[in-house]
Design goal:
heterotrimer, A mainly alpha (about 280), B mainly alpha (about 325), C alpha/beta (about 475), A: about 75% helix, C: about 475 residues, 2 domains, 21 helices, about 10% strand
């Protein structure tokens, strides 16, 4: 009885807190949405909780502006972000597995090394990075936005921690006894077990890369290679005559849609991870 | 050890598996990083279009940074981080344990799980823009407060140290608590349900279960959260930058270390920026080492043992 | 390290050699050009290809937004078509203008421009920067004679004395390097006026006649009396201390940093701004809820619910800031003279040293900044206050320039005389940072966050962060 009442109280408390938090989260989306329906003039006048009537106008302004490659930008961002998410999670999982499942001389060194570089802020190396890729002839291309994500220490660390708590080495040995080759073991046995971790990190990497302005702004030059954040910065940098906050908010709004979709798709895998977790071990 | 016994040497696979990571790292991070460290010993900046240096000046950049307000900015960063992180980790732990708790019937779980992560999808700069409008002197928050009669005059949120710091903290909290929750959820899901079942049979209540089973078992991920959050905190930039227009106002009390670094990068002062980066590097390295030690190595009743329980049993 | 030194030496050597080379070829082309244009401008097409074999195929124009592109495509008659996405324009002679636009945000534009200019000598002809834009705040960085990033107008074949005779004097003065040689040109001038609310004027002063009000705002002393009257009736004169900054800054006697020096000398005018603003703020002449500019509080101060009497704006400010933010009756505002004539903003165009298209560059600069027909068109189509005395003089007398927003007043009757009397303070390459940082530092002081000495100290810290080469900061006694 007692525990039932206690649980009941907990349930109520949980719901109240969740509703408050959700309200706060959704509130900002609501304002974004409202702002994207208001004209520049309305927006400058200040805040309003009620939507305006310029949604379609704003959308048209953003989408049909011949000099503003919205679709192209979203496409570029999609390419960069999904490639990043894919190779980042795959190689991080590979590296984590390599360090977790095998014993070799430099293992400790390698691990310590990765842990040490975990803390490197991007800003620190940005200028050197720019010089380097210019020398390599990758300036103004999408590649330097994608390839470096192979080495993501923090994703590696997450994968490693996850392996620690959920991959028994006996499983790997069993696979070996069954004659499975090392790469096959990784791709067909280890990767599925890591699905929840991969889904989680894929989302984070995708979002991080989608919203990244700093590096792309340094690297990208031509309009047909620009990603969404650079386009938004371009809108914000428009001169006084052409600046249109309505367009800016609309672009922010448009830019959010793809990541929400990706999030919804991937969050299913996180749930799927639960059932998987049930049968493993 | 057991590999040795088996005679087949798998160690080359270890090298092969970690090779791509290291190759990519050496090319895209290490070369620029070495550049950064090298320039930290030089006087090297741009004045307009003119390049000054590089002239070797030894530790002069490091010395002059110590004399600057760097420590004050480090303090700012720490405070701003704490304001955001403490509620973030508490709420995230609560939510994660609720979400995976089958006894707690949370309705619309799916909805909540999606919603709490949403703020993270908004670009930090856009988010800060919204906050700026909301909390401006004539903004909606002030009009609500005024009409409720809570204040007589509009509150100048961004004109006070407390106000600005709190806003930055709240923003960081809102942006990241969903992220942390999801990560912790993934970790808790990784725990074998058998353990929970066993605990239930032993008559554990939810508080006991949380502190005695969940928490120790998700230790590695918890350490990960802590470390990434420390790094994220040290790298805090967008939110205070945009909220305060890059000034860290009032009186530079919300200037973070990276904003300080950014000021140097703006003047293309690679020497000073390099030295500051090295400081940052050392500090975050020490912090992470401490955290990693505390959470991982002692392992008194914790993760590794539990995680390998099954394995040992089989062997 | 060694490599670096060698490459720098190499660059310097190349710079020197290319300089002399450029000068030589330019003077050649100059003579042939002038004869071209003089004899027959319509057939210049054919003649051009003959006499200009070295002219490149691609003209790269660097800019920070679409402003320059729209203006040039509107007036440069050689342009045949512009691609849908606005990245390329094809000229009648087959060459191509490439529009390279980078956002100003986080200094990205200047970063990329600087990279390109530094690599100018080694870049392939088609990748060389030919024209670039610079805002008034940082134009000096690029017209420095020692750096020689921008060509002198003369070496392009433009004679500022004759070709740009119709431009406002101050726009030419600020575009000169330390030797007094003009290296940039602009199509706009941005003389500011005082824009005030007619209804408040009527209520407080009994009249809304611009001439009468103009007497009350003719200088700071009169302005203060006016402010007192406004306050007695419950109105604020200006929205905040940031609004008046440009007037003080514009009337500085010396540049922030004298050419060739590394000492910042804070002008007395700046400290006047601080003390006056403090006095005005404490007296209640500013709206206490407004801090700085370009934020929603500031915009709200332009609406009908606001108690702010006046704003200080150039032409672009009225059209793009006040009109959209005003929600009351049309015709509620009027313009009159500000206590001081001042200039706010302006985009300059510069010819990059090393351009492979000097002829096109010259034509574009002339078409955009010297042709009165074109400037009239820009004034009409884009509401810029253009840099042509005769055009603006005519606008002041032309009824088609009256504004409904200003209750049928023709604002050019105040803009144009304002532009004639502007004396721009001498500029330096450090202006952008100094202006921004001094406002920040003393903004905290004016909001009572810190005391006066702390503000000075904060300014010094911020300056040293931004400009490591600054050795000393001097304050007036």
């Amino acid at each position: 009885m007692k525990s039932k009442g206690y649980n009941g109280f907990r349930t109520i408390f949980a719901h109240v807190l969740l509703v408050i938090l959700s309200f706060m989260c959704l509130f900002f989306f609501y304002i974004l949405l409202v702002n994207s329906t208001r004209s520049h003039a309305d927006l400058q006048k200040g805040f309003s909780a009620l939507p305006g009537s310029s949604f379609l106008t704003n959308l048209k302004n953003v989408a049909n502006d011949g000099s503003f490659p919205m679709v192209r930008g979203i496409l570029n961002s999609l390419i960069v972000s999904s490639s990043c998410a894919a190779i980042c999670t795959y190689f991080s999982a590979l590296t984590a597995y390599g360090l977790y499942a095998y014993d070799f001389k430099l293992k400790k060194v390698a691990f310590t090394f990765i842990m040490a570089i975990l803390v490197m802020p991007t800003q620190v190396t940005a200028m050197g990075f720019l010089r380097l890729i210019t020398k390599m002839g990758m300036y103004d291309s999408l590649l330097p936005l994608i390839i470096p994500s192979i080495a993501s220490p923090s994703v590696f660390y997450f994968m490693y921690s996850y392996l620690q708590s959920s991959l028994p080495l006996s499983l790997v040995e069993a696979a070996r006894i069954d004659g499975s080759k090392e790469f096959r073991t990784f791709n067909q046995i280890v990767l599925p077990i890591m699905k929840p971790a991969i889904a989680v990190q894929a989302i984070f990497t995708f979002v991080g890369s989608w919203n990244n302005y700093f590096v792309p702004a340094l690297v990208i030059q031509s309009k047909d290679k620009m990603t969404v954040p650079i386009l938004i910065a371009l809108l914000r940098g428009a001169d006084y005559l052409n600046r249109d906050m309505g367009k800016i908010y609309m672009m922010i709004m448009v830019a959010i849609v793809p990541i929400i979709l990706v999030y919804l798709i991937l969050s299913k895998y996180i749930i799927a991870g639960v059932t998987l977790g049930g049968v493993k071990g | 050890m057991k590999q040795k016994r088996k005679k087949i040497d798998y160690s080359k696979w270890g090298y092969i598996f970690i090779l791509p990571f290291f190759v990519s790292f050496f090319i895209f991070s290490l070369i620029p990083l070495v550049d950064t460290i090298r320039y930290s010993f030089y006087e090297y900046y741009r004045s307009g279009l003119k390049e000054i240096g590089p002239n070797f000046i030894g530790m002069a950049n490091y010395a002059s940074l110590l004399k600057s307000d760097m420590l004050k900015y480090a303090g700012n960063t720490l405070i701003l981080w704490l304001i955001g992180f403490v509620p973030q980790i508490v709420i995230a732990l609560l939510l994660a344990s609720w979400f995976v708790d089958a006894r707690l019937k949370i309705r619309g779980q799916q909805f909540f799980k999606v919603v709490i992560y949403l703020p993270n999808l908004i670009m930090a700069s856009a988010f800060a823009m919204l906050f700026f409008t909301l909390f401006s002197n004539k903004g909606p928050i002030n009009s609500i407060l005024l009409s409720l009669g809570i204040t007589e005059n509009p509150i100048d949120f961004m004109g006070t140290v407390f106000g600005t710091r709190t806003l930055v903290g709240v923003m960081n909290f809102l942006m990241w608590f969903g992220n942390t929750t999801i990560m912790l959820m993934a970790a808790i899901m990784g725990i074998s349900p058998d353990i929970f079942e066993a605990s239930e049979i032993d008559g554990c209540n939810s508080v006991q279960r949380f502190f005695c089973i969940t928490l120790p078992l998700i230790r590695p991920i918890l350490a990960y959260t802590l470390i990434t959050s420390i790094i994220g905190g040290l790298q805090m930039f967008d939110v205070p930058q945009i909220l305060t227009n890059g000034q860290g106002s009032p009186d530079r009390t919300s200037t973070t270390l990276i904003m300080f670094l950014n000021n140097h990068l703006k003047s293309k002062n690679y020497g000073m920026a390099g030295a500051l980066s090295v400081y940052l590097f050392i500090v975050s390295g020490i912090l992470c080492f401490i955290v990693y030690r505390i959470t991982n190595d002692e392992d008194p009743d914790g993760s590794k043992a539990a995680a390998k329980k099954n394995k040992k049993g089989r062997r | 390290m060694k490599k670096k030194v060698v490459s720098i030496l190499l660059l310097a050597a190349m710079a020197a050699s290319s300089l002399t080379g450029c000068g030589g070829s330019n003077s050649d082309s100059q003579t042939s050009n002038t004869s071209n244009v003089g004899s027959d401008s319509q057939s210049s097409d054919a003649v051009n290809t003959d006499s200009q074999p070295e002219e490149g195929q691609v003209i790269n124009i660097y800019s920070f937004n679409d402003e320059l592109r729209t203006r040039i495509t509107a007036v440069y008659s050689e342009i045949e078509s512009t691609s849908e996405d606005g990245t390329e324009s094809i000229l009648k002679d087959g060459s191509v203008i490439r529009w390279i636009i980078n956002p100003n945000q986080d200094g990205v534009y200047q970063d990329k421009l600087d990279e390109a200019l530094n690599g100018q000598l080694t870049a392939a002809a088609d990748n060389k920067v030919d024209i670039f834009a610079a805002e008034l705040d940082y134009v000096v960085k690029y017209i420095d004679a020692d750096i020689d990033a921008a060509m002198t107008l003369e070496s392009l074949g433009i004679n500022p004395e004759t070709d740009l005779a119709d431009q406002f004097e101050f726009t030419k003065t600020v575009a000169c390097d330390q030797n007094g040689v003009q290296r940039a040109s602009t199509w706009q001038a941005c003389p500011g006026v005082l824009v005030y609310r007619r209804d408040i004027a009527k209520e407080v002063f009994g009249t809304d006649d611009p001439e009468e009000i103009g007497k009350k705002t003719k200088d700071w002393a009169a302005m203060k009396t006016t402010a007192e009257e406004l306050k007695a009736s419950g109105y604020y004169t200006f929205s905040s201390y940031a609004d008046t900054f440009r007037l003080y800054n514009n009337s500085m006697a010396n540049a922030w940093v004298a050419p060739g020096e590394t000492t910042i000398k804070v002008d007395q005018k700046i400290l006047d701004w601080v003390t006056d603003s403090k006095e005005w703020k404490d007296a209640g002449y500013f709206d206490p809820t407004v801090k700085g500019q370009w934020n929603s509080d500031w915009f709200t101060a332009m609406s009908s619910s606001s108690k702010v009497f006046a704003f200080l704006f150039p032409a672009w400010g009225i059209d793009t800031q006040m009109v959209p933010n005003w929600d009351g009756e049309e015709g509620s505002w009027a313009v009159t003279n500000a206590p001081l004539s001042y200039n706010w903003g302006g985009t300059f165009i510069l010819a990059a040293e090393g351009t492979d298209n000097p002829q096109h560059v010259k034509d574009i600069i002339l078409a955009l900044t010297a042709d009165t027909d074109n400037l009239t068109k820009i004034s009409k189509d884009y509401a810029d206050f253009t840099n042509a005395k005769s055009v603006m003089q005519a606008a002041a007398e032309d009824d088609s320039f009256t504004s409904d927003f200003l209750g049928g007043q023709n604002p050019y009757t105040y803009f144009t005389p304002g532009a004639d009397t502007i004396k721009m303070a001498p500029l330096s390459a450090y202006d952008q940072g100094c202006v921004e940082l001094v406002q920040n530092a003393f903004g905290d002081y004016l909001q009572d966050q810190i005391d006066y000495d702390k503000a000075k100290e904060n300014f010094e810290i911020a300056i040293r962060e931004r400009y490591p080469e600054i050795t000393e900061i001097q304050w007036p006694e």
